[in-house]
Specification:
Rossmann fold; 206 residues; binds glutamine; 8-stranded mixed sheet; alpha/beta; 29% strand; single chain; 3-stranded mixed sheet; 6 helices
């Protein structure tokens, strides 16, 4: 399987790498445009979205990254990563890739002191909890955006086609169901792309 690329300019890219390797998925850290070749998927980690934006520009990654995101690869965007993908970002407003039809408020759950572990409801095993750190709050979402999980009524895990976006940090916990969900998306995509084995074709012909 081709490696999954993890944007590695700032934030908790190392934790995402460890979470993927624990599932047997090869990873590549992304820092320059040449790193974007031949990937099976993409992870935009948590951290500080404004700093990531600055570094994306400095590294010449903004334009090729936009094209890669639009190519339909499976994408996991967590926290600052979700902010980078949003259609509209407020408080303060900032530029974004605009691929996910949501309006998001940065630090929408309050300051660092409001961070913590919270229970989720929705399409995840009962009792699933998740770590929120100065998390973004999704204020609006378009009709094509599926809500997979909520925290006290707010959407916090969203999917639109190959994009899975979380307001929290699945990579900080061992075996978080959201990590497994993304791994399943990667494997499904890799399988649909791999050429049929000659043996399988012959069996079909017999
Ligand atoms: N609040 C941060 C931002 O604006 C995101 C926090 C996080 O990624 N844990 O980018």
């Amino acid at each position: 399987m081709k490696p999954v690329g993890i944007l590695a300019l700032q934030g908790d890219f190392a934790e995402h790498g460890a979470a993927m390797r624990a599932h047997g998925i090869p990873v590549r850290e992304l820092r320059v445009p040449a790193d974007l070749e031949g990937l099976s998927g993409l992870i935009l980690p948590g951290g500080e979205s404004s700093t990531m934006l600055k570094l994306l520009r400095i590294q010449g990654l903004q334009v090729p990254m936009q094209a890669l995101l639009e190519s339909g690869l499976p994408v996991l965007a967590t926290c600052a990563g979700l902010i980078l993908l949003a259609r509209e970002v407020i408080e303060p407003s900032q530029e974004s890739f605009g691929l996910l039809d949501i309006k998001v408020c940065r630090n929408g759950y309050g300051r660092q002191i409001c961070s913590g572990t919270f229970e989720l409801s929705g399409e995840l095993p009962a009792g699933t909890r998740a770590v929120f750190i100065r998390a973004p709050r999704v204020l609006e979402h378009g009709p094509e955006v599926e809500i997979l999980a909520r925290r006290d009524g707010d959407p916090v895990l969203l999917r639109r086609g190959p994009i899975l976006a979380a307001c929290f940090h699945p990579e900080l916990e061992e075996n978080h169901p959201v990590t497994a969900m993304f791994v399943a998306m990667l494997r499904a995509r890799a399988e649909s792309e791999s050429p049929q084995e000659p043996g399988a074709h012959q069996a079909e012909m017999a």
